[in-house]
Amino acid sequence: MKNLVFVFIACISLTACSGNKNKNEKSGSLRAEITAAGATFPQPFYNKVFNDYSTMTGNKLTYGGIGSGGGIRSLKDKVVDFGATDAFLTDEQAAELPAPVVHVPTCLGAVVIAFNLPGITELKMKNEVLASVFLGEIKKWNDPKILADNPGINLPGKDISVVYRSDGSGTTFIFSDYLSKISKSWADKVGTGKSLNWPVGMGAKGNPGVAGIIKQTEGTIGYIGSEYAFAQRIPCVLLQNQAGNFIAPSVESVSAAAQGDIPADTRVMVTNSADPDAYPISAFTWIILYKEQSYNGRKIDQARETVKFLQWLVGPDAQAIARKVDYAPLPEKAVQLANDILKSVTFEGEPLL
Amino acid sequence: MIRSREIFTSDKIAKVILKSASFLVLLLAAGIIFSLLKGSIPAFREFGIFRFIFSSEWNPTEGKEVYGAFPFIFGTVVTSLLALIICFPLSFATSLFISEYFKKTKIAGILSTLVDLLAGIPSIVYGLWGFYTLRPLIVDLGLSEQGYGIFTSSLILAIMIIPYATSLSNEIISMVPNELKEAGYSLGATRLEVIFNVILPVSRSGLVAGYILALGRALGETMAVTMLIGNANLIPKGIFSPGNTMASVIANQFGEADGLKLSALIAIGLLLFVVTAIVNAAGKWIVRRYA
Amino acid sequence: MLDKLDPLMNLMKSDNRNTPDRSSWRDKKNKLFLGLVVTLSIVTVLPIFLILWKLVKEGISQINLDFFIKVAPDPLEAMTAVNNGEIIPGGIANGITGSLLMVLIASLIAIPVSILAGIFLYEHPNGWYARLIRNLTDILQGVPSIVLGLIAYIWIVISITKGFSGLAGSVALAIMMLPIVIRSTEETMKMIPVTLKEAAAALGVPYWRIILKVMIPTGFSGLMTGILLSISRILGETAPLMLTALGSTMINLNIYKPTSAVPLLIWEFYNNPNMVRLVWSSSLFLMGVVLVLNILAKRINSRFGNNQ
Predict the structure, then answer these.
(1) Rounded Cα distance, C229 and B216, in Å
(2) Does the structure show a pLDDT above 50 at A28?
(3) Can you tell me whether residue A350 is helix, strand or coil?
(4) Residue A162 pLDDT more than 50?
(5) Is the pTM of this model over 0.90?
(6) Integer Cα distance of B149 and B208 in angstroms
(7) Residue B140 in contact with partner chain A when CB distance is under 8 A
(8) What is the pLDDT of residue C172?
(9) CB C60 within 8 A of CB C284
(10) Residues 271-310 of A with CB under 8 A from C
(11) B206 touches chain C (CB under 8 A)
């Protein structure tokens, strides 16, 4: 029996080490293996479309949700084909990378404000009220400022327990970007970032952590990614957008947020959009890749397959899937810009598409 | 003549192989320390080593970044020691049950397997179970309002490290030569006396090694602690208050970190090395002096 | 060897035998202690039952044949299934194969080195070099798995495989196995009576033979325990694999490429609101594996070891 075990182990090890080299040579077709890593915010969407593309074309796509920072790091270290991030790179951050990168938006998501008050499913909050709650200035649910926006709703005298993300996250970045735009007090005291020095509340890890606490504890309020809230049917606050309307988060209201101006490199935060139907805490999520694809001994086929995939990703088929998993598809303008950007990606100076 | 030379050479080869294996371990540890040092330098340069270690400020806001490791060092040491204290009586008793009192019986075998199962539970599952089952229990008992904090984390850590201490202790205790125990009984000692005066001294080294391994596990645990400790980047006010540990903050912030923050986290990883060394040394010294 | 009885001898000498009630107090202490041991053992086992119960309650519904042979479901499938109240389709085959592969390779890397290092430490109880190695080993145990993942990322992902790979994952896991196997080997060897070794040496048996034919078989049970414990540990580790193996939606046997693993899948399931149920089923699976390994180890012990 000892010998059998030994042979078994030897076989598996040999198979593993020889890898898929044989398969590729036999089939002759472009069975490319594309690896990407980055943000967890769009992960359900990416997992679905990566899977579909793999089945469709026979290429093998892998995505690791290790965080936007991890995605940027992996691209910097040149161990992935492209990275994914919720916060676009500033000029300083882009300068730290060994070569110029381009941003390609892939879809839109939203950050919702979830809460737990038994018996209450609809709650409105004006901008100043929201900021004050998270700053710790409004401490109780039946504070007159909250009551003013919600006539007829019986708010209890409970303390407000704020919940925030203890791990660094793009969701935090998007939410804080919005708060900084609508509240000078917030911008001065706390600011924008993936990780913040929260004035009040407690931290939980990941969307599931925050959602878990909110669902289990009465009187809590916190922010989570929209697809999470939709799937778990957690009640969300209706926020007032720039036009003055109270909007609930939905695929339509998130898409509306992207109707404004988008710069050519697509690096823009669309929170607090001016569009009347827009949900105020919406945002793009991007894929980043090197503009010049011949680096590190990269083959032209690999580069071409990567860009082809990304073109499919911003195309109508993939975007239709976004809607199904509760993400908002890119507006026409963004798709146009994304295609332009992809066409500017080169290999040894020559565009790939 | 020739025979003794043959044995001499093969002995030498064997000893060289053994030494090389140990040298590999040394290389590995040195390599890890080196890589961590390299990554920590930006943080140490920015904040100064001593300030970094003893400062309690942790502000990740861009533009005003300040990082200090003290709250995490405190949290790590307290939770791990508390976990070991809770684990020790449970683990020791279970080992005695399995390897001494009920040695080689069926129930001992079942108990031993059950304890080993604890080692196979993924740490994320410990975190989840702690979150859904343990935390409400603590709240119901009125010990804490939300259930997060040092105590809850220490409790889950204690459960997690039990198999490391127990498994090794089982082996060690069962390997105590029967002749010694029988000699003790023949002198008229009770079971209890044989345990504390024969078995314990003989197996002390192995038992300590087991508990040091368990302690190491507690010091480095991330997922389970991160879900139950409350993630407050400050020194906890009491045993039921939230706090944070070094491993937990690294795991939490790592995915999104870059630049100075990443360096600060790597520095904390390096410091954990140092903290583990100190705690281990202290533990071994205490045992040598008092046990 | 008789000097090991010194503590007991001292106790017996100091024990005042002239007091008639003494012996019944010693008896009472004895019985009380037994009661304490049994009680504490029950307390120790309690969490195991509680956790197992939770796992079974939440996860058993998802375990069927598909669970073992199909790959992880995509988010849409899971969402539709949950909305319709059905069992989530798919399984964790990609994770099972990945875990199997990486654990195997990690074991092949770690176990031989660890046992040899452990024997080295046993042979050198004193001396600054051995003490250094021993301390470093103990410290290694305290390094968080995510830091080891980072190390493997720097050493393997960036430099060797130039991309995420199962090999990097195996290296990270191997490093985690080292302290446990090294120390359990050393301590097990120390418990073997020196007389056995001396007898063999007196017969002219060469050193390496003594190790292979006398020491290792006698201490086999202890070695197996260390190996089993280390494998159980790495089976459930997520953090290091996130930075090294990354994950994969398909079954992948090529260690130079990203590969999935059961704990990685558990992490993905945890983060996806529609797949949470699979977290419990996958954990149940891992515990099943540990159980099987445990039983296997006991079988091997009785066949190949010959301890007291």
Answers:
(1) 14
(2) no
(3) strand
(4) yes
(5) no
(6) 28
(7) no
(8) 96
(9) yes
(10) 296
(11) yes
Q: Does C283 touch chain B (CB under 8 A)?
A: yes
Q: Whole-angstrom Cα distance, residue C191 to residue B203?
A: 8
Write out chain B's pLDDT in tens, 291 residues: 445 665 668 888 889 999 999 999 999 999 999 999 999 999 888 888 888 888 888 887 777 788 889 999 999 999 999 999 999 999 999 999 999 898 888 999 999 999 988 988 888 889 889 988 888 888 888 887 777 889 999 999 999 999 999 999 999 999 999 999 999 999 988 889 999 999 999 998 889 999 998 999 999 998 889 888 888 888 888 888 888 999 999 988 887 787 788 899 999 999 998 999 999 998 888 888 876
**Where in chain A are all domains bearing CATH 3.40.190.10?**
2-18+33-109+283-351, 110-282
In chain C, what residues touch B128 (CB-CB under 8 Å)?
Answer: 270, 279
Subunit partners of chain C (3 or more CB pairs within 8 A): A, B
Is residue B95 within 8 A of residue B167, CB to CB? The reply is no
Q: What is the tens place of the pLDDT at every residue in C229-284?
A: 999 999 989 989 999 999 888 888 888 999 999 999 998 888 888 888 889 999 99
Q: How far is C129 from chain A (nearest CA, A)?
A: 35
Token pair of A223, please?
Answer: 């922010």
- Quick check: B113 and C175 CB within 8 A? no
Could you tell me which CATH number the domain at A110-282 has?
3.40.190.10
Cα–Cα nearest to B171, from B120, B213, B231:
B213
Residues A70, C247: C-beta atoms closer than 8 Å: no
The H-or-E segment that residue A110 falls in is: strand A101-115
B66-290 has which CATH code? Answer: 1.10.3720.10
From B209's Cα to the closest Cα of chain C, the distance in A is: 7
Q: Chain A: residue nearest B252 by CA?
A: A167
The rounded distance, in Å, linking the Cα atoms of B162 and B277 is 21
* C70 token code pair: 């199909």
Q: Where are the domains of chain B?
A: 66-290
Determine the distance in angstroms separating the CA of C77 from the nearest CA of chain A, rounded to an integer: 9
Residue B272's closest chain C neighbor by CA? Answer: C143
pLDDT band at A5 (very low <50, low <70, confident <90, very high): low
**How confident is the model over A209-259, as pLDDT tens digits?**
899 889 888 899 999 998 888 888 889 999 998 888 999 998 899 988 988
Task: Provide ipTM, 2 decimals.
Answer: 0.86
Disruptive mutation site among A47, A52, A63 for chain C (greatest number of C CBs within 10 Å):
A47
Chain B residues 9-28 with CB within 8 Å of chain A: none
CA distances for C21 relative to A208, C10, C27, C32, C33, angstroms: 63, 20, 10, 17, 19
Helices and strands counted in chain A (H then E): 15, 13
The domain made up of A2-18+33-109+283-351 has a fold known as D-Maltodextrin-Binding Protein; domain 2 (3.40.190)
Q: Which residues of B2-21 are buried (b: 16+ CB within 10 A; e: fewer)?
A: eeeeebeeeeeebeeebbeb
Q: H or E element: which one contains A25?
A: helix A21-27
Closest to B69 measured CA to CA, from B45, B50, B87: B50
- Residue from C177, C245, C262, A72 nearest B254 by CA: A72
**Residue A57 in contact with partner chain C when CB distance is under 8 A:** no
At B37, give phi and psi (nearest 5°): -60, -45
How far does A300 lie from chain B, in Å, by closest CA? 30
Q: Residue B122: which of C51, A151, A99, A128 has the closest Cα? A: C51
The residue in chain A having the minimum alpha-carbon distance to the alpha carbon of residue B128 is A209
